[in-house]
Specification:
The chain is an all-alpha fold and about 140 residues long. It has a single domain (about 15-140), classed as Uracil-DNA glycosylase-like domain (Uracil-DNA Glycosylase, subunit E, 3-Layer(aba) Sandwich). The protein is about 45% helix and about 0% strand. The N and C termini lie far apart (about 60 Å). This is SMUG1 glycosylase.
Length: about 140
């Protein structure tokens, strides 16, 4: 007996339904592993930060790369957060050409894409500063820090 699978091809040419099933299975598996627990903690912390009152003047734009760059961020965490480590996060300045572009802490797009081999789609943030557009992994600008 032949198995049939319904397939939906999206505009980008990916096989959406099969990928969705695989992602659901990965998410269920991830809840039990180190990377999954780390990502869950990050989501909780991100939600807490977004619940804070908005900044006033002179702050006009606030980027949340864990929202719009979640795919490459997850890829980074799943690749490099596999074993326990002693780590202390004191805070991060994502920079307009680093984490703000890729969702990967400390990484400008070229290094994230070519050296770390991180992949994933980056969406546009809801409010984008005209001088700091989010180009994702295709960003050609480099962080100066």
């Amino acid at each position: 007996m032949e198995e049939s699978t319904a397939v939906t091809v999206t505009e980008s040419g990916t096989v959406a339904e099969e990928e969705e099933e695989e992602e659901k299975e990965e998410e269920e598996d991830d809840k039990d592993d180190l990377a999954g627990r780390f990502l869950q903690l990050e989501q909780e912390q991100s939600a807490s930060l977004q619940a804070l009152p908005p900044f006033g003047d002179p702050v006009s734009h606030v980027y949340h790369p864990l929202d719009y760059a979640w795919e490459p961020h997850c890829d980074f965490v799943r690749r490099y957060c596999r074993t326990p480590k002693r780590v202390l996060f004191l805070g991060m300045n994502p920079g307009p050409f680093g984490m703000a572009q890729t969702g990967v802490p400390f990484g400008e797009a070229w290094h994230v894409r070519e050296w770390l081999r991180v992949v994933g789609g980056v969406k546009k943030p809801p409010s984008e500063h005209p001088k700091r557009p989010v180009l994702g992994l295709t960003c050609r600008r480099a962080e100066v820090s």
